[in-house]
Write a structure and sequence with these properties.
The complex is a heterodimer of chains A (290) and B (283). Chain A is of the alpha/beta class and 290 residues long. Helices cover 30% and strands 24% of the residues of chain A. Chain A has eight helices and eleven strands. Chain A has a six-stranded mixed β-sheet with strand order 7-8-9-5-10-11, sandwiched between helices. In chain A, 43% of the residues are buried. With 283 residues, chain B is mainly α. Chain B has helices at 18-47, 57-66, 68-102, 104-119, 122-133, 137-161, 165-173, 178-214, 221-230, 234-262, 272-276. The radius of gyration of chain B is 23 Å and the shape is flat. The chains are: A alpha/beta (290), B mainly alpha (283). Chain A binds chain B through residues 92, 94, 113-114, 116, 118, 120, 122-124, 126-130, 139-140, 142-143, 145-146, 161-162, 164-165, 168-177, 185, 189, and chain B through 1-2, 4, 164, 166-167, 169-177, 180, 184-185, 188, 191, 265-267, 270, 274, 277-283.
């Protein structure tokens, strides 16, 4: 794979970064900030994945191919149990593909993961109950054996609206707040790619809706490349630039939709014709795929 | 907002002074204790039961007052044996548990052996220890350690495995090593299990020390109880037993205090208020 071309630096907090400011001429060391790249940041090519079970071989993903550009927000929807989570794990290097190829900025997923270029947010926040909010974010830095300049945890708390809760323990937080901590923890290494696995599915509807816009607010400021798995079609549409529809297991790509909504997104857009049209189209694709 | 260091807990109702809360906490059990003692006293006096069969609580209390300092010194010695044994057994068990968690082969080879020693009644092994290590402190500490070892080992091994799978996945996602996962996740996750074992073990250690003293000792509360028994000095025996029971309560109380410091985040230590207020911090 060829290395992606560097177009220009964008600091993650967009704090007065002028092009070239962070580049030291003649130094080949990879800079700490994330560069927006031309060409796909994530490339998935003919990806298949299955599991050897006692009952036989279980194919989960079949011949999946797609690309995600740098700074793009892509949502993945599909029938439950279709392998969305497996897809994220393969992309993130937690599982290896049975066939095909995944590349993150031109690297093997496992290498990208070990270089801390991939951040995960799981279905449950999975915080350590014996550590404070701040401590939970710092724990990632403590296992930093492949040193990668990290973001200031306290800055991240401000970004995710947790500044006043730094010294709270997880048992004192609501589900939504705990997921914000998980998001801040995933961002601490300033990863290129953020993988989110139904992060809001355990929340009540009101919190869930608030968290969507909260995520969008953080995303507007960081412009991470995001792959967001969800089973909620409206959630996919309001969040994403593009929505991929997976079929029933073994999952194939059953459809793809470019969301025709301007950014930044607002709650009122959920009443717009194009939002409803997108939801209707995705629903029909999903029904056909299931 | 929920406070981590909220005072009180248990059944004590809110809105009382500190003294009131303590009274509400220990009042019912103290009353029951006094009531049962009075019943016992009345029974012994009314039926004229001879003191070599069952002494009256007043006789036991009188003996405790008269021989207090001597009995207390013996008690402290036994407590020392028990605590040293508990410390030694606990540390060895956690060490073995850590090793077994790191190397599966070690667990597969040694764990069944450990079970075998565990099911062997300690009283049958204890005489050997007296023969090997004499009448002093060492055999008592070793027997107390042996009896403490297994509950801690079993719970350590269970606790190291009982981790939140999602948290484990998070650590894998950031490329943590097996050892880092152990130190940052498995060990803290096992603490509720370890403390449950400590509460059981610390009392077992006391039993181990007493049994060891029965088999041959020149000091200790166990020896004092044995001597009183041989002399049909029931008041002395009960005084010794009472002190032993107090020591056991003291030890479990200490463990609970320690546990409260370490496990403040665990469900068992959150007060009812904190549990109902759980997850209300929202911004």
């Amino acid at each position: 794979m060829c290395r992606p071309k560097v177009a220009g630096p964008v600091t993650i907090l967009n704090q007065g970064a002028s092009p070239g400011q962070n580049r030291e001429p003649g130094r080949r060391r990879r800079p700490a900030i994330i560069f927006s790249v031309t060409g796909p940041l994530l490339e998935v090519r003919s990806l298949s994945k299955g599991f050897e079970l006692a009952a036989g071989y279980l194919p989960v993903l079949r011949e999946l191919s797609f690309q995600v550009g740098a700074g793009e927000f892509v949502a993945v929807v599909g029938p439950s149990g279709c392998g969305k989570t497996t897809l994220l794990r393969v992309i993130g290097g937690l599982l290896s593909p049975s066939a095909g190829k995944v590349a993150i900025a031109g690297q093997e997923p496992d290498l990208a993961r070990r270089r801390k270029e991939v951040g995960f947010v799981f279905q449950t926040p999975a915080l350590l109950p014996w550590r404070t909010v701040l401590g939970n974010i710092r724990v990632a830095l403590e296992v930093n054996r492949v040193p990668r300049p990290a973001l200031d945890p306290e800055e991240l708390l401000r970004l995710t609206g947790l500044a006043d809760f730094a010294h709270y323990y997880p048992h004192q937080l609501s589900g939504g707040m705990a997921q914000r901590v998980a998001l801040a923890r995933a961002l601490v290494f300033n990863p290129k790619l953020l993988l989110m696995d139904e992060p809001f599915s355990a929340l009540d509807e009101l919190t869930r809706s608030a968290m969507r816009y909260e995520l969008l607010r953080v995303w507007e400021q960081t412009r991470k490349t995001v792959v967001f798995v969800t089973h909620s079609i409206p959630e996919a549409v309001i969040l994403a630039d593009r929505v991929l529809v997976l079929s029933h297991r073994p999952a194939r790509l059953a459809g793809e939709l470019k969301v025709d909504l301007p950014r930044p997104r607002h709650e009122e857009m959920e009443d717009s014709a194009s939002f409803r049209e997108a939801v209707r189209w995705l629903k029909s694709r999903l029904r056909a795929a299931a | 907002m929920a406070q981590v260091e909220a005072a009180g807990g248990g059944l004590a109702p809110k809105g009382l002074t500190k003294v009131g809360r303590v009274l509400a906490e220990v009042g019912p059990s103290a009353a029951a204790f006094v009531f049962l003692a009075a019943l016992w006293e009345g029974w012994v006096r009314f039926r004229g039961i001879p003191p070599y069969l069952l002494p009256a609580p007043s006789a036991v209390a009188a003996r405790l007052l008269a021989e207090g300092p001597t009995l207390l010194a013996e008690g402290v010695y036994t407590l020392l044996e028990a605590l040293l044994g508990f410390g030694l057994g606990g540390v060895a068990a956690i060490g073995a548990g850590v090793a077994m968690a790191q190397w599966r082969l070690l667990e597969r080879s040694l764990y069944p052996l450990a079970i075998l020693v565990k099911v062997t009644p300690i009283v049958t092994v204890a005489p050997l220890f007296i023969i090997w290590f004499g009448f002093g402190l060492l055999p008592k500490v070793l027997i107390a350690a042996l009896i403490t070892f297994f509950p801690v080992l079993v719970n350590a091994v269970t606790g190291f495995r009982a981790v939140d799978p999602a948290a484990l996945e998070f650590f894998q996602s950031i490329g943590a090593s097996k050892w880092e996962i152990f130190v940052k996740l498995r060990f803290p996750s096992s603490l509720p299990y370890l403390f449950a074992a400590f509460r059981v073990s610390v009392v077992l250690g006391l039993i181990g020390a007493v049994v060891a003293e029965w088999l041959g000792a020149d000091r200790g509360l166990g020896r004092a109880i044995l001597l009183a028994n041989q002399n049909l000095d029931m008041a002395g025996l009960f005084a010794g037993v009472f002190l032993l029971a107090l020591s056991g309560m003291g030890l479990t109380g200490l463990i609970r205090l320690w546990e409260k410091q370490v496990l403040f985040w665990h469900e068992t230590w959150l007060t009812t208020d904190e549990l109902t207020e759980r997850g209300t911090a929202d911004g």
